[in-house]
């Protein structure tokens, strides 16, 4: 069994789900017992990240969501608005159980690291408590340097191992995009992967595109993150 992989982001809507799908599919195609775990899904319906990952892998068992909430808000706020109980301890225990049931668990974050999860705990608390190795997904264009560096610093302060940074929807169309990967490596000391725009394709094609874009060395590093 490898350490849990936490696919986290610098914000909402930056591509955590498609990167999660790509990594999960890569493991799945190699016969590894893998499952993507979404601790909480807000905005459901229609949003269902676990269903997207399962569809991308062609296997309903390839992903699971532990809690669904209707309001499209941070989980803690969504539960409050829906007048539902959301316990961090119960959510953490459910994540730990799901992690223990698979050889290659992949936990997808919710929004950014400081998003309120439950009670006074945030997404970053769960990542740290699970002793996960983080993959940080970020935007490619102007503005990403600050958001990414701050996210890396937050993870480091909590003692979270970081596998690398993924700049999503990288087209290299602007000077900022073309220089950001090298600048992020200089600023953070971590390797940067780039994934090109893959809009308009099926979940399976999107996941394959992500896996094809990520370097072999990066994926192999994820697969050998032993306890």
TrEMBL record:
EC number(s) per entry: 6.3.3.3
Q: What GO CC annotations are associated with the protein?
A: cytosol
Under Gene Ontology molecular function, one entry of this record is: magnesium ion binding
Q: Which family does it belong to?
A: Belongs to the dethiobiotin synthetase family.
- The answer to whether the entry has keyword Ligase is yes
Recorded metabolic or biological pathway in which this protein acts: Cofactor biosynthesis; biotin biosynthesis; biotin from 7,8-diaminononanoate: step 1/2
Essential cofactor(s): Mg(2+)
Q: What does this protein do?
A: Catalyzes a mechanistically unusual reaction, the ATP-dependent insertion of CO2 between the N7 and N8 nitrogen atoms of 7,8-diaminopelargonic acid (DAPA, also called 7,8-diammoniononanoate) to form a ureido ring.
- PANTHER family recorded: DETHIOBIOTIN SYNTHETASE
Please report a single Pfam family linked to this protein. AAA_26
Q: Which NCBIfam families match?
A: bioD
State the active site. 38
Q: What is this protein called?
A: ATP-dependent dethiobiotin synthetase BioD
Q: What keywords tag this UniProt record?
A: ATP-binding, Biotin biosynthesis, Cytoplasm, Ligase, Magnesium, Metal-binding, Nucleotide-binding
Q: Which GO terms describe its biological process?
A: biotin biosynthetic process
Q: Binding residues for substrate, per the UniProt record?
A: 42
Q: Where in the cell is it found?
A: Cytoplasm
Q: Which Gene3D superfamilies match?
A: P-loop containing nucleotide triphosphate hydrolases
| Top EC group | ligase
**What catalytic activity is recorded?**
(7R,8S)-7,8-diammoniononanoate + CO2 + ATP = (4R,5S)-dethiobiotin + ADP + phosphate + 3 H(+)
Q: Which gene encodes it?
A: bioD
Which sites bind Mg(2+)? 17, 49, 108
Record: residues binding ATP: 13-18, 49, 108-111, 168-169
The annotated subunit structure for this chain is:
Homodimer.
């Amino acid at each position: 069994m490898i350490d849990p992989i936490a696919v986290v982001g610098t914000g909402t809507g930056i591509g955590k789900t498609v990167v999660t799908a790509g990594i999960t599919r890569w493991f799945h195609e190699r016969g590894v017992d893998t499952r993507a775990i979404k601790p909480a899904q807000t905005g459901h319906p229609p949003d269902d990240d676990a269903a997207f990952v399962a569809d991308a892998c062609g296997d309903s068992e390839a992903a699971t969501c532990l809690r669904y909430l209707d309001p499209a808000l941070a989980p803690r706020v969504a539960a409050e608005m829906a007048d539902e109980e959301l316990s961090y301890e119960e959510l953490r225990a459910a994540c730990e159980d799901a992690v223990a049931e698979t050889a290659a668990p992949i936990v997808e974050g919710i929004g950014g690291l400081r998003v309120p999860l439950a009670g006074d705990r945030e997404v970053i608390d769960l990542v740290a408590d699970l002793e996960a190795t983080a993959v940080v997904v970020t935007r490619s264009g102007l503005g990403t340097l600050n958001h990414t560096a701050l996210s890396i610093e937050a993870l480091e302060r909590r003692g979270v191992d970081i596998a690398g940074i993924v700049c999503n929807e990288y087209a290299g169309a602007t000077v900022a995009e073309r220089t950001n990967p090298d600048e992020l490596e200089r600023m953070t000391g971590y390797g940067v992967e780039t994934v090109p725009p893959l809009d308009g394709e099926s979940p399976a094609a999107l996941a394959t595109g992500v896996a094809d874009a990520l370097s072999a060395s990066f994926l192999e590093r994820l697969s050998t993150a032993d306890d």
